[in-house]
Amino acid sequence: MQRLVLSELSVSGDTETSTGLAQVQRAVQASQRCLVITGAGISVSSGIPDFRSPTGLFHQLKQKYPSSVTNGRDLFDATLFHDASMVNVFYSFMGELRTLIDRATCTPTHAFIKRLDEHGKLLRCYTQNIDSLEKRVGLETAFVQDEDAVDSTDSASKRRKQTMDKKFTRAVQLHGDLDTLICTICHTKCPFSHKLALEFREGTPPPCPRCKEIEVIRGIVGKRSQTTGVLRPDIVLYNEMHPQGVSTIKCLNYWMRLLRFTTRMLY
């Protein structure tokens, strides 16, 4: 296995840059499989800031909310839900970030990863990003196939609906994504629509429509009220368990068994 760290390739001059890129090209052409690991840097050119650079999100958050945020990372820690003022800042920021993502376009790096997949070289892409640009460029991020996409007349296909197909997932979103919201109580999921993004920007958690529906039904039949949930982004924060952790580990174990000397890692 050969590992290439793109950020360590020399960019001090045109000749050295060309040499570094040529090294990547030769490695990809010679490999049978490529494992791609990406972070926020690949989406910067689409208009989405990274996190830790001098102009990144952490720095922007400290400047925008100096009285609430002392460290930008605090806004991505699950403990923020214990502080009402931090919750308001979190929702407002997530609404703004959702709007940025809606405006973003896939970058040449996303197109390159997709091309690796089309040429049968992509073992899998693992990304820390929550912008879902991998999905937008055409890489499958789900761990299981939708029932409509499986031939219901094929008994083997029926079995696959109930088990994870490790070859089906082309990009694993390690931190979730901002395409979806999830209820804090019933765990119902719904799309992060433009309308909900506007509600988020007001800093107030929107109520879960499913919980509200159940509460109305309970009232009609004379049952006592229960706690209802609110919608939050379906992302993984610091100090929070990964809801897809088991599936992610299965994918990791799968490609580790396939690794050979012809495999390249690019990140």
Kindly state the number of beta strands. Answer: 8
Tell me the span between the first and last alpha carbons: 14 Å
Q: What portion of residues is helical? A: 25-40%
Low-confidence stretches: 155-162
Largest sheet: 5 strands, parallel
The proportion of strand residues reads 5-15%
* Strand arrangement in the largest pleated sheet: 1-8-2-3-4
Mean residue pLDDT? 82
Question: In terms of structural class, how would the helical and strand content be classed?
Answer: alpha/beta
Number of separate helices: 9
User: Roughly how many Å is the radius of gyration?
Assistant: 21 Å
**Could you state the order of secondary-structure elements as H and E?**
EHEHHHEHHEEEHHEHE
What general form does the structure show? globular
Task: Provide a brief overview of the structure.
The protein has helices at 14-30, 57-64, 84-103, 108-118, 133-136, 155-160, 194-201, 209-220, 245-258, and strands at 2-4, 33-38, 122-127, 171-173, 176-183, 189-191, 231-235, 263-266. It is an alpha/beta fold and 267 residues long.
Give structural notes.
The protein has 267 residues and is of the alpha/beta class. The two termini are 14 Å apart. Helix 3 (84-103) runs antiparallel to helix 7 (194-201). The chain is 37% helix and 14% strand. The protein is globular, with a radius of gyration of 21 Å. The chain is built from nine helices and eight strands. It has helices at residues 14-30, 57-64, 84-103, 108-118, 133-136, 155-160, 194-201, 209-220, 245-258; strands at 2-4, 33-38, 122-127, 171-173, 176-183, 189-191, 231-235, 263-266.
